[in-house]
Design brief:
By secondary structure, this protein is of the alpha/beta class. The protein is built from 8 helices and 19 strands. The chain has one domain: L-arginine/glycine Amidinotransferase, Chain A (5-stranded Propeller). Strands 4-1-19 form a 3-stranded mixed sheet. Strands 7-8-9 form a 3-stranded mixed sheet.
Length: 371
């Protein structure tokens, strides 16, 4: 047992796969809006996802676990909590939690460190508890492991921009993207906030997306916490940014898969180019939109799980993405996973790499602009 992962592509030997049990459409809170009247959840309502959806998602999650175990990868699974229960701190109360499927949102592995993210949704403040028994077992088994937790945020009203959603929804897409570029979304800068899934790891370089879940203070905290790394705060032309792993996906040294509908900053593009990295535009998704009760986008097509520099798991129905990655030299493992999307994401979202073979390397020796 050893915790070790420096990037997104070294050979995977140990992983956590999430569970769908008990997942909720969250109760209203400042950080998030859910409005799905056509599926029985109009704005302001909340409750558990339908049991038939839970069963279908768990079947696909269990299948993913079997596929990985069949390739010799150790797979652990989290415990589930009563996510329907209300939770509170001395400063706020929240009528429900969320779930324990997208483990990537909550935990970040950098080298021998396992870091618990802050989480900016009140409904997800206690979500780390679903993974604590696993983390505790890793700590007991691996004497070299660093177990860290970012400062638990207060998440008072001061952490959010008052009236943000009403004002934001009235803007044009171009005006929304301008706010994204400036990092002026629902989160204020009152305290550090970040989701682990907004971090893409490339050895000494960590790319941190400013989003609806990650603010500049969170990026600054990560920069100070990892002084041996170059921590870059980045944005994309996405009016609703939520996690980097369906927009900017490092596949192996020298290759990034990019959602061209969400343009990267020119300085980021040039930083990769001066270091001889190729940026490939992701294939068009097969579907026009997300599944019912999903806060994700159709670009989960590029939310892949890299098993090693030559092997990648892709949602089985995304034939264009499968074909593209095959032409790039990958062995592609098709994995049915669309039924999991409503529970918090795709293949990358649903997994946490505990151990990848490999060491810390510098893949970007040349500087460019602010990078």
């Amino acid at each position: 047992m050893k915790v070790n992962a420096w990037n997104e592509w070294d050979p995977l030997t140990h992983v956590v796969v999430g569970r769908a049990d008990g997942t909720m459409v969250q109760a209203p809170e400042p950080a998030v809006v859910r409005d799905w009247p056509e599926y029985g959840f109009p704005r302001g309502s909340y409750g558990p996802l339908p049991p038939e959806m839970v069963a279908a998602a768990n079947e696909q999650l269990d299948n993913l676990a079997r596929i990985l175990e069949g390739r010799g990868i150790r797979v652990d699974r989290p415990e589930t909590l009563d996510f329907a229960r209300a939770v509170a701190t001395p400063e706020w109360s929240q009528a429900s939690m969320f779930g324990a499927m997208p483990v990537r949102d909550v935990l970040l592995t950098v080298g021998n460190e396992l870091l618990e993210a802050t989480m900016s949704f009140r409904s997800r403040w206690f979500e780390f508890l679903a993974y604590r028994p696993l983390i505790e077992s890793y700590f007991r088994e691996d004497p070299g492991m660093r177990w860290e937790a970012a400062p638990k945020p207060r998440l008072t009203r001061a952490s959010y921009r008052e009236g943000f959603w009403e004002a934001y929804e009235a803007l044009s897409e171009a005006e929304q993207v301008a706010l994204v570029r400036r990092g002026e979304l629902v989160l204020s800068e009152a305290e550090p906030l970040f989701d682990a899934a907004d971090v893409a790891r490339c050895g000494k370089d960590l790319f941190v997306q400013l989003s609806l879940a990650t603010n500049r203070a969170g990026g600054r905290w990560l920069r100070q916490h990892f002084p041996g790394h170059r921590v870059h705060l980045v944005t994309f032309g996405n009016p609703h940014p939520m996690h980097i792993d369906a927009t900017w996906v490092p596949l192996r040294p020298g290759l990034v898969l990019h959602c061209a509908e969400r343009p990267a900053e020119d300085e980021l593009v040039q930083y990769l180019k001066v270091n001889d990295w190729e940026i490939v535009r992701a294939a068009t998704p097969q579907r026009a939109g997300p599944p019912p009760l999903s806060a994700c986008s159709r670009w989960l097509s590029m939310n892949v799980l890299v098993l090693d520099p030559g092997t990648v798991c892709v949602e089985a129905s995304e034939t264009a993405q499968i074909e593209q990655l095959g032409k790039l030299g990958f062995e592609v493992v098709p994995v049915p996973f669309w039924d999991v999307a409503a529970f918090g994401g795709g293949l990358h979202c649903a997994t946490l790499d505990v151990h990848r073979e490999g060491v810390l390397e510098d893949y970007f020796p040349m500087r460019y602009g602010r990078f």
